[in-house]
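Changelog note: in this version the structure field was regenerated for every chain. One regenerated record is shown below for reference.
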Amino acid sequence: MSFFSVFKQGQTYLNTWPQEAKLGMIFPENRVMKTTRFAQKTMPIIAVFSVVWQQLYAKSDLMAFSLAIMTAFLALLIPLQGLYWLGKRAASPLKAQSAAWFYHICERLNKIHEPLPLVQEQPTYQHLAEVLKKAQNRLDRAFWQEL
């Protein structure tokens, strides 16, 4: 998987994973996704603000300008860190307990004739996210209470 495809996979995973409070107790995804979404919204503003602020108050100071550029650069990297983690996580295979849970949810979705993602060898976290999204849309709220 190429470097940039990891970011794209991370964004896909971010958009696929259902934001259920019950899942937040089991998986770290909810916290990482909440932080990444926040960073995607605020860090570009902070990056622009740091450069503009420096230009308003220290126009002739070259050292302050270089620090402002470095701050802006680092602020823009924060959401990329979250997307990279999510991309790597989406491609990693499920652990045994999560895989058993994945197949259990697939059985419940099969009973209502819901199409499922194709799993080649071992299910990944992206497959789990797709199945959970379908379960969120098609199964009743009692499903989430059973977890």
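Spot check on this record: The two ends are 33 Å apart (CA to CA). The chain has two domains: 1-91, 93-147.
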